[in-house]
Amino acid sequence: MNSVLAWKPAALLRFWPGIVIAAVIALAASFISSSYGGPQLLFALFIGLAFHFLSNDPVCRPGIDFCSKGVLRTGVALLGARITLPQVASLGATTIALVVAAVLSTIGCGYLLARLLRRPLQEGILSGGAVGICGASAALAIAAVLPQTRQNERFTLLTVVGVTALSTLAMIVYPLLVHLARLDGEASGIFIGGAIHDVAQVVGAGYLISNHAGDVATIVKLTRVACLVPVVLALCVIFQTRGSSTEVDLPALLPLFLVGFVLTMLANTYGLIPPPLVELLNTVSRACLVTAIAALGVKTSLQALAQLGWRPVAMLLGETLWIAVFVFAGVLMLR
């Protein structure tokens, strides 16, 4: 509700300095990415980190907080415009089962690694969900329903950095791997779409192999994105129940951004959204996520990230290896 009220003109007058800062950082990151290549979200994060000194400014802080929460949830809600139900159904039951199993097992892997490395279990769930579903976007969506603590905020930023960097590396390495394994276009697309974290890197790696592999990889990846709703809703129920006797400020049981995600996906499925509007919604969603990442970067210092230590990095690497091996083994069994 707060994020909706924040769009009122009176609230925007109070928030505009921070909103402008985050928007300018997002535009700079977009310009660098389009002009020189590279991951847009990572650029937004790094530029935002350089302006951390503004996070304690009483004039800028309200807008920065709003971008990191309200704008973030708007971007996640609009992700549904990328998906239609027939796209998911065209993969077949076996492939869909493999994708869902990969997502769930990766979240489970994160949970176990968090216990093994003696880190908070929320960190294992967050990193496992980011690796298993859709990278930085999933990390931001899951973080929105976890207890809002400073440690969780810092870990969310580290997860965004980690999954973006690992996705970029995978975009280069995985096409070589499928070539060495002599996988056909469909099998290559299933592996690429099932193992790489972020949507942009999946598309890049898939079409680097072939057009058919790129098409299959995109649909597989969007199927993983569709898992965002049930996973985040389940986590919301879990943490709402566990936090009922605490003073932690938890979101509503059914967050509005999840409702928006489902409605947008259904509207796109039944052709209620014209193709030009679908493109516009995808652009707006991406812009919201980049702006939210920029704001989160401003709110976090490198010193605070360094205090997390090596264990969170080990979790991300372990989860990345797990989902790659799991999907690759599944693809070999389906051949």
Automatic annotation (TrEMBL):
It is a multi-pass membrane protein. It comes from the Bacteria. The keyword Cell membrane applies. The chain crosses the membrane at residues 12-32, 88-113, 125-146, 155-177, 189-210, 222-240, 252-273, 310-334. Pfam families: Cons_hypoth698. It is found in: Cell membrane. Keywords: Cell membrane, Membrane, Transmembrane, Transmembrane helix. GO terms for cellular component: plasma membrane. The keyword Cytoplasm does not apply. Belongs to the UPF0324 family. This is Putative sulfate exporter family transporter.
